[in-house]
Write a structure and sequence with these properties.
- The chain has 979 residues and is mainly beta.
- The chain has a 22-stranded antiparallel β-barrel. A 5-stranded antiparallel β-sheet has the order 4-3-6-7-8, with no helix packed on it. A 4-stranded antiparallel β-sheet has the order 39-40-41-42, with no helix packed on it.
- The two termini are 37 Å apart.
């Protein structure tokens, strides 16, 4: 899930004109929101992070690049455009336009047209900026353009009267004031998709031995036992009381083997999108309807989402935008209170001798639940509604001259978020003897506004050798108001014959939290670029600083000066100046980029990650995990402080129209101090500034694009593109507050991920075998290794490096893309394997239970080589003498540390644009059909389901696997049509 910051699926959103706020959800491959992801605007200190549900909001403008990152994940960048976020591929997201060399005959006014040649740099993109052509059309009879290209974001509209011919554009002369006159038309976009979901890999379970344990030196079937160390099922039959007895002593009906994995089924996602837009001379209306229904691989696990969005834009001398977004999400059996973990655990634990004719009984043992019963009875559900109003978005040009422009912008937005969840367990279920139920209602409101003034200078006319300066200055004030209200009721003590709701609880605990926050931010920004006419920018520099004040911060924690800088220098120009032209040709580019930024980030008013609730529970009691504690902002908390430095070199070589080759190498150093995490002290958890860390690494990106020729002519739309990305990162803890030795992040008492000074963030800590100074295991008098009671570092879940390789083939209207990922190194704790070994449910426990006279390598307490033979599961030794049972539910952590190295075929995508056929039915339309598969193939030495899954689906639980949700393989198709 770490690919390019894992796979990012953007939930529907709208952005506003110029200065705007983006509201979005970041999810993983399963569609689950990812909390704690950091989002900032590249080259600035504006930053935010996702909440519990993966949601965030951030103020941006068109042309900004959002950097999306999280600890242990690969960073992803997306570009803000007028139509949304664009992430076609990694790197520099820019449109190309023609920078003309204008030859202007004197005293020859024009009334006709402008003609110029052009090159299409990539594909059939004609969204170039033609305003210069329109301006000069009034001054010359004919204006010739010599093609030069420049990388800048360009989002202007095309003029109406444009004719495109081969290698030539004829642009009719139209009045400048009507240049952006829009079309008057209705436009409809519709898409529908259907995906099938299935588990990519499941653990290997044994199907030979029945429920039970040794009794009187013999393996025996024991009804309602948690173990499966009973007799071979082929040696059992039923008696008249439906009990299992030895062959020949019952009614002759042979015992049946039950496969508990059959409960998992193929899931699906069905989604429809409809966008209707209408444009008038100055007005634009756009509405978006979306509906998605999902059925997971667990029965009764459903998710239904409806989105309605509307956008009104008026643009003449100023731009005015109104926006309305409504979102409704209903979920049955969401991942609350780790119920998915309990269901998966119950499925794997179910013995093969379980009576599948009575599969809705309460339980099949006192300490675990029947998964069929569990999934049908637990009342877990969620209802979430979001309303966003872009009350006003405005951009006004106060004064505009030939080279100068003064702009004033302001915006005001309101967001309402309401979420109600219910979750609980019935009495007598394994997780709770008396039953428990929680009704949680949360209401969050926010009001965001800003006002901005900007001055821009851009020289319009200059000679070929002129060296000039364009610059801009910006001053902005942002205000944000946040309000959070929580009403939570926890009930305990229920009768088995009562409906599980809060009114029937014998004891009710109320939790009411009301918090608000006022935030004031001031931004001062200055940008400048130097260039030679008709060439790429020689230098771009954007710098400034930010002030941050909040009602929830103490004055000593106010941020009076948060500087940032973004510098780009064309090394290619310098090399050409000193006549190094053999390799660095005119069309080649070679750039040096430097980004430095500082920012601060407050914790949310209501802490939105609940993984800490299990840290005071042993792993054996995973089924008793419950999100019973709420944490909130408290007085005295300092904000998290971030500092980043990115240095990169980018080379781009073009041999048009044959090929293009580019390479980028980036070195990054990111530091975070005063990281806020839950700390357990005085028998309670509280939020504290506890961790400082440094994440450093590098990334190499190579991209090659080949254009094919036939008979010395360019074949349109025939190309091959290959992108190779190699990255390495190392998040290391540099300091822990209050002289702590470690801070537990996620997991359990006996196994957890932790922060330890000098170690990578999130190292796995658990128990090991006891060893002497020479590293030899110490063997007890019975012949089994002893366990070290002191926890030790077992592994590091962070990979050594990640390699991704994307290949795309395009021939006319067909395209095929294939994405591979290779992840080297890293470790994961396979607690699922040890737990199933302990219970006798794993294939390993079936294969090894008959091992006898095995001698463990090591020394005894006297230092002598061990010579004592042992049997792994001899019934004479009873259950306590069993090699897999003697070390407990999750065994010895050292035994379960496995490599997380993996090779995956992440995605295959085949699409066909059949517009030319579709237009025969609907002349003004487009249509594309796509087939795709995700996680199609996976090769790894890890014996569990997937080394990249997370404990209870929390990011802090990466590297821990105890009945984690299986990874999904997806097959789907999508149809897109435009009218």
């Amino acid at each position: 899930m770490k690919y390019l910051l894992l796979f990012i699926f953007f939930f529907p959103f709208f952005i506003f004109a110029q200065q705007q706020e983006i509201s979005q959800t970041i999810t993983d491959e399963k569609g689950e929101g990812i909390p704690g992801v950091s989002i900032h605007i590249k080259g600035t200190t504006t930053a935010t992070s996702t909440d519990l549900d993966g949601k965030y909001t951030i103020k941006t403008k068109i042309g900004d690049i959002l950097v999306i990152e999280a600890i242990g994940m690969k960073t992803r960048e997306v570009l803000v455009t007028k139509d949304g976020l664009v992430a076609l591929k990694e790197g520099k997201y820019t449109h190309r336009y023609i920078q003309p060399n204008i030859i202007q005959p004197k005293n020859k006014p024009i009334k006709d047209s402008v003609e110029f040649n052009y090159e299409i740099f990539m594909g059939k993109d004609t969204s170039f900026a033609y305003k210069n052509a329109v301006d000069f059309s009034k001054q010359a009879k004919k204006v010739e353009f010599k093609n030069k290209t420049e990388e800048i974001p360009t989002f202007t509209e095309l003029p109406q009267n444009i004719k495109i011919r081969k290698n030539k554009i004829i642009l009719s002369s139209i009045p400048t004031k009507d240049y952006f006159k829009p079309y008057n038309f209705w436009h409809i976009d519709y898409s529908t998709s259907f995906d099938f979901l299935e588990s990519n890999k499941l653990p290997k379970l044994q199907n030979q031995f029945a429920q039970g344990r040794p009794i009187n030196g013999q393996n025996a079937w024991v009804q309602n036992d948690i173990f499966s160390w009973g007799e071979n099922i082929k040696k059992l039959e039923y008696d008249n009381n439906n009990a299992l007895v030895a062959l020949g002593t019952g009614n002759g009906r042979l015992a049946q083997s039950f496969n508990p994995l059959q409960i998992l089924r193929t899931g699906y996602i069905f989604k429809n999108n409809l966008i209707i837009s209408k444009r008038w001379q100055y007005w634009t209306f756009k509405t978006h309807f979306s509906h998605q229904k999902q059925q997971g691989i667990i029965p009764n696990q459903t998710n239904e989402q409806t989105d309605i969005q509307a956008l009104f834009t008026h643009q003449r001398k100023q731009k005015l935008t109104f926006n309305v977004i409504f979102n409704n999400i209903q979920q049955q059996l969401p991942n609350i209170g780790a119920n998915w973990q309990s269901i998966i655990g119950n499925i794997y634990r179910t013995p093969i001798s379980f009576d599948n004719q009575n599969n809705f009984n309460l339980s099949h043992s006192p300490q675990t639940d029947n998964p069929y019963f569990y999934q049908n009875i637990v009342p877990d559900n969620s209802l979430e509604r979001n309303l966003t109003l872009g009350i006003v978005q405005n951009s006004i040009s106060i004064k505009k001259q030939e080279s100068n422009e003064y702009l004033l912008g302001y915006a005001l937005n309101y967001n309402l978020h309401q979420k109600q969840t219910a979750f609980g367990l019935l009495p007598a279920m394994a997780g709770s003897a008396t039953g428990r139920y929680t009704d949680r209602k949360m209401l969050q409101q926010s009001l965001n506004g800003n006002i901005e003034t900007k001055y821009e200078y851009q020289e319009q006319y200059r000679s070929y050798n002129a060296f000039f300066k364009d610059f801009s200055a910006k001053l902005r004030y942002d205000y944000a108001y946040q309000d959070t209200n929580l009403d939570r009721k926890d009930g305990q003590g229920f009768n088995t014959n009562q409906t599980l709701n809060i009114q029937n609880a014998n004891q009710i605990t109320n939790t009411n939290i009301q918090l608000d926050r006022h935030i004031h931010e001031f931004f001062i920004n200055f940008g400048v670029n130097k260039k030679y006419v008709f060439t790429d920018n020689f230098m771009d520099l954007e710098t400034g600083f930010r002030n941050y004040f909040s009602s929830t911060l103490l004055p000593k924690n106010y941020a009076y000066f948060l500087p940032y800088a973004n510098l780009s220098v064309s090394i290619g120009h310098l090399l050409r100046k000193i006549n190094i032209t053999n390799f660095f040709r005119y069309n080649d580019s070679f750039f040096f980029h430097l980004v430095y930024g500082t920012s601060i980030q407050e914790t949310s008013l209501l802490y939105n990650q609940f993984q800490f609730n299990s840290l005071q529970t042993n792993a054996e009691n995973y089924g008793q995990y419950f999100e019973n504690k709420e944490l909130q902002w408290k007085n005295g908390l300092a904000p998290e402080k971030n500092r980043k430095l990115d240095i990169s070199l980018h080379f781009d070589k073009k041999n048009y129209p044959s090929y293009q080759l580019s390479a980028t190498i980036t070195r990054f150093i990111h530091q975070k101090s005063d990281m806020i995490v839950p700390i357990f002290e005085n028998n309670n958890f509280s939020l504290q500034n506890a961790i400082d860390m440094r994440n450093s690494g590098w990334e190499l990106k190579l991209e090659y694009t080949k254009f094919f020729k036939d008979n010395n002519s360019y074949i349109r739309d025939a190309s091959f593109n290959s992108v190779l990305i190699l990255s390495r990162f190392n998040p290391v803890v540099t300091h822990l507050a209050n002289q702590r030795e470690s801070v537990a992040l996620a997991g359990y008492k006996d196994i957890s991920t932790q922060a330890i000074v000098g170690q990578p963030l999130g190292v796995i800590v658990g128990n090991t075998y006891l060893r002497n100074q020479n590293g030899q295991k110490i063997i007890d008098g019975q012949g089994f290794p002893l366990v070290n009671v002191m926890p030790q570092i077992l592994g590091n879940p962070n990979p050594d490096f990640i390699l991704t390789w994307l290949n795309k083939f395009q021939v006319k209207d067909f395209s095929l893309s294939i994405l591979f990922e290779y992840r080297k190194g890293g470790q994961v704790w396979n607690g699922t394997k040890n737990a199933l070994n302990y219970l006798g449910r794993s294939e390993q426990s079936a294969n090894e239970r008959n091992i006898t006279n095995f001698v463990f390598e090591g020394v005894n307490l006297l230092g002598q080589s061990n010579q004592i033979p042992v049997d792994f599961a001899n019934p004479i030794n009873g259950l306590s003498g069993n090699r897999f049972v003697r070390y407990g539910f999750v065994g010895v952590g050292e035994d379960t540390i496995e490599s997380a190295t993996s090779f995956r075929l992440r995605e295959v995508n085949f699409s066909h644009n059949f517009t030319k056929y579709w237009k025969k039915i609907f002349p003004k339309s487009e249509a594309t059909f796509t087939l795709y598969a995700q996680n199609l193939l996976m090769y790894m030495p890890y014996s569990g389901v997937d080394a990249q899954t997370m404990l209870m689906n929390y990011q802090a639980g990466i590297g821990l696997d105890l009945f984690n949700m299986p990874a999904m393989r997806t097959f789907g198709g999508k149809l897109q049509m435009s009218f």
